[in-house]
Write a structure and sequence with these properties.
Blueprint: E1 15-23, E2 26-34, E3 40-52, E4 60-71, H1 75-93
Antiparallel strand pairs: 1-2, 2-3, 3-4
Amino acid sequence: MEDFKRNEEGKEREIVFSRTIKAGKRIYYVDVKRNRKDELYLAVTESKKIVDGTDFANQHISFEKHKIFLYREDFEKFQNGLNEAIAYIESQQGKAVPRIEQDNSEIKIDMDF
């Protein structure tokens, strides 16, 4: 998913837990990483597919990424703020209807001869 950052010794920063959340045109990666002090922190990455050009032959596909890092001492405050923001939106517009994701991983063909 992402390029690892390297520490002074050239070692990759360790991802100790990871989840991928597919949501429409966006993919969210929630990774728990370990820093130099052996402390765990949360890295959330939003990746959005960008297609430039209207002609299929000349399309250029790239990914726009945005990251936030959350440290343990901020978890409670962040979670409280996120819950309050979600509650506000739901009080104004109701709960969101989950999207039905298309699973294109398997194609089944049923033919009679």
